[in-house]
Amino acid sequence: MNIEVNASDAEILVSLTGEATVEDAASIADEFRRLAADGKPLLTFDLSGVTEIDITFMQLLYALSNTLSGAGRHLMLFSLPPDHPVMRRSALTGMRIDHHFTIAEKKG
């Protein structure tokens, strides 16, 4: 799992690539905690480079979203095609990211 973070004054863009599975849960959780502590009002995630995910990653993403929401902040995801691994796992687990998160079209 590779996590690239780009910050502006009001937003953090987080791009993930590779496998987001239980094997990487500790490092992903550490990075998510760091992002939550940053204080920027908006975190936008680009998951288009994720090749495999499991329920652990979904739980971490939901937990981060809930933490941000409780602090008056927001997590947004760039849209993904229905056949993308993230969308397939989301549908299989019943943790529908398209129902829980704000989805935005990626520009460019």
Descriptors:
40% helix; 108 residues; alpha/beta; Transcription Regulator spoIIAA; 5-stranded mixed beta sheet; 33% strand
CATH architecture: 2-Layer Sandwich
Number of domains: 1
Sheet having the most strands: 5 strands, mixed
The name of the CATH topology is: Transcription Regulator spoIIAA
Q: Quick one: CATH superfamily?
A: STAS domain
- Provide the β-strand percentage band: 25-35%
Strand count: 5
Quote the average pLDDT.
92
End-to-end gap: 24 Å
Number of helices: 4
Rg measurement, Å: 13 Å
Ranges where pLDDT stays below 50 over 5 or more residues in a row are none
Overview of this protein structure:
With 108 residues, the chain is α/β, with parallel strands linked by helices. The protein has one domain: STAS domain (Transcription Regulator spoIIAA, 2-Layer Sandwich), CATH 3.30.750. It contains four helices and five strands. It has helices at residues 25-38, 55-70, 85-93, 97-100, and strands spanning 2-7, 11-20, 42-53, 74-78, 102-104. Strands 1-2-3-4-5 form a five-stranded mixed sheet. The radius of gyration is 13 Å and the shape is globular. The model has no long low-confidence stretch (mean pLDDT 92).
